[in-house]
Amino acid sequence: MMNDEKVLSDFIRDIIEREMEEGKHDGRVQTRFPPEPNGYLHIGHAKSIVLNFGIAEQYDGKCNLRFDDTNPTREEEEFVSSMIEDIHWLGYDWDDRLFFASDYFGQLYEWAVQLIKDGKAYVDDLSPEEIREYRGTLTEPGKESPFRDRSVEENLDLFQGMKEGEFMEEERVLRAKIDMASPNINLRDPVMYRILHETHHRTGDEWCIYPTYDWAHGQSDSIEKITHSLCTLEFKNNRPLYNWFLDQLGIFHPRQIEFARLNITYTVLSKRRLIQLVEEGYVNGWDDPRMPTLSGMRRRGITPESIRHFIEHVGVAKKQSTIQRSKLDHFIRDDLNARTPRANGVLRPLKVVITNYPEDKVEMMEFPNHPGDESFGTRDVPFSKEIYIDRDDFREDPPKRFWRLSPGKEVRLRYAYFMTCQDVVKDEDGKIVELRCTVDPETRGGAAPDGRKVKGTLHWVSVPHALDVEVRVYDRLFNDPFPLDAEEGGDFTDSLNPDSLQVYSHVKVEPSLQGVKAGDRYQFERVGYFCVDPDSTEEKLVFNQTIALYDSWAKIEKRQEQERKRRKS
Ligand code: ATP
Ligand code: MG
To answer: Which of 99, 357, 363, 508 is the least buried, fewest Cβ under 10 Å from its Cβ?
Structure first.
């Protein structure tokens, strides 16, 4: 159970509270999360998960997990197990209430027979194209099928034949007999069953007719006595159809309430498009840390708590909107800051030789594991004559207000010494390969007894003690905040960011990271948050950068660059 103190409120919870006061369903609240197992869950699904399980929790109700597995052509066991893992990871559980729409195939068949007997459903021989043509448009009514007035006996006979495999796919369908002139296209005799000679991941070859989502969904909710059937806005126009089915059958009526989907800038949240990214190799699988899938976010090091907090912050509304990616980033950093121990890691190592430090001396410097939380304790980090600093922390020709290291400048090595750069060593191409520096022995620990101050503090790693690791740094997967806009006249993959993955093969980290395990998280001080990747081996650790720390300097430089351009023009 979650113990988030905050009591949430929104238009759906308002409805539920009103109904509870009125004593509807005897105050019972039953929700469900109903994914189709045709891909991996993404952060959009998390909105529905947090909403459905969160509401059940808040009102002492229950939330079921139900796989809407009505389409055997797209569904796989792999997707079922990944979804189960992801929902558990988010922190939710359904006890013994794990269901499959396929559990209800028998009942749905009986109900279809009942509708046929009541003259409310018929077998249609029109082809899929003809059915589409006959359906009409938003402005024109549809046309009735010539097979619409078959006798009940003939319908029963043909439907049984469909079930027994007497026909080919697309030869016949079962349709509800409602109203071909209805202004709501969903009510123009929707298809209830189609023939599919496919093996189903659970029912095997037992069935060769499969219910459509429209026919299965509402009845599945009814069977499970779902009190509040929460779904996204695109199902609003299906609601009258779901109600029509429930009314004809005279069975329990869940209340359907629609809410807006979650959209986030610089990403796509649609299984169909995510499948394309995976299958066409734009990413390295469903759990690629750049993917908005829950498994990708988990591998990247993002915590389930931050996802929940983000979603609760966004809330539920009836109006479509797109949330800025930076908002999600804020919640990711906020949560990681509180929970991750600190370590030193140098992404772009530049060797520094401390000329006035004894050759074989090693000193252990005490570091707090979390500057804001003493309960994390401390650790000893070795310091020696040769250290690595980050190339980015040195400029031979520093711009104004660059407080880090440059020739003749003094900086602090965190929890070690004040250090001054004396000399720059270059190779024949002019590339800087080494710095020669001195430390002030009086400043051990990182403070000067004479009270003098330095503006820059650098992180460092001792050369002989350093572990050599790989770091994968991720940027947004798309360059365009609205990647789907590219679909007009192109493809959303056109706006993929070619530089979304950068690999640093020889990152130097402090020796205390020896033995860390996949999933462990650290903040590399001054750099960002990192998580150990399952690709790690005994020989080589691999880290994913979850997210960078806020880098003010990048912003300053950008502003200076803009300033420069403005002055030029
Ligand atoms: P996709 O387009 O990614 O395939 P879907 O709606 O077809 O999504 P389902 O497996 O049917 O996928 O979704 C399960 C539940 O998750 C549904 O109730 C659906 O409304 C909800 N859901 C899916 N995407 C989002 C989203 N972006 N925001 C909120 N809820 C979502
Ligand atoms: Mg769907």
So the answer is: 363
- Name the architecture of domain 271-341+469-568: Beta Barrel (2.40)
CA–CA gap between residue 23 and residue 18 (Å, rounded): 9
Nearest to 30 by CA among 87, 89, 95: 95
Structure tokens that stand for 1 in this block: 């159970």
Domain boundaries of the chain, sorted by first residue? 11-259, 271-341+469-568, 345-459
The CATH number of the domain covering residues in 345-459: 2.40.240.10
CA of residue 36 to ligand 2 center, whole Å:
6
271-341+469-568 matches 11-259 in CATH topology:
no
**What is the rounded distance in angstroms from the CA atom of residue 198 to the CA atom of residue 210?**
10
The C-alpha angle 262, 91, 263, rounded to 5 degrees, equals 10
322, 332, 286: which is closest to 484 by C-alpha? 322
**pLDDT greater than 90 at residue 424:** yes
Length of the chain: 569
The pLDDT value recorded for residue 283 is 98
Task: Name the catalytic one among 202, 261, 327, 351.
Answer: 261
Q: Is 62 one of the annotated active-site residues of the chain?
A: no
Q: What confidence tens digit (pLDDT) does each residue in 519-548 have?
A: 999 999 999 999 999 999 999 999 999 999
The confidence band for 71, taking pLDDT boundaries of 50, 70 and 90, is very high
User: In this structure, which residue's CA is closest to atom 27 in ligand 1?
Assistant: 44
Give dist(CA 439, CA 355) in Å, integer: 8
Q: 261: Cβ below 6 Å to ligand 1?
A: yes
Q: Say what the pLDDT of residue 5 is.
A: 56
Top mutation candidate among 45, 99, 271 for ligand 1, by most atoms within 8 Å of CB: 45
State which amino acid sits at residue 184.
N
If one looks up domain 11-259 in CATH, what number appears? 3.40.50.620
Q: Assess whether the C-beta atom of 293 lies below 6 angstroms from ligand 1.
A: no
Q: Which residue has the tokens 């599919």?
A: 196
Question: Is the pLDDT confidence value at 1 over 70?
Answer: no
Q: Are the beta carbons of 501 and 290 closer than 8 angstroms?
A: yes
d(C-alpha 67, C-alpha 52), whole Å: 14
Contact (Cβ atoms closer than 8 angstroms) between residue 111 and residue 146: no
User: What are the pLDDT digits (tens) for 259-280?
Assistant: 999 999 999 999 999 999 999 9
List, edge to edge, every strand of the sheet that includes 62-67: 30-33, 62-67, 98-100
Residue with CA nearest ligand 1 atom 8 = 270
**Would you say the pTM of this structure is higher than 0.70?**
yes
* Chain Cα centroid distance, residue 101: 25
Ligand nearest to the CA of 262: 1
What separation in Å is there between the alpha carbon of 371 and the centre of ligand 1? 41
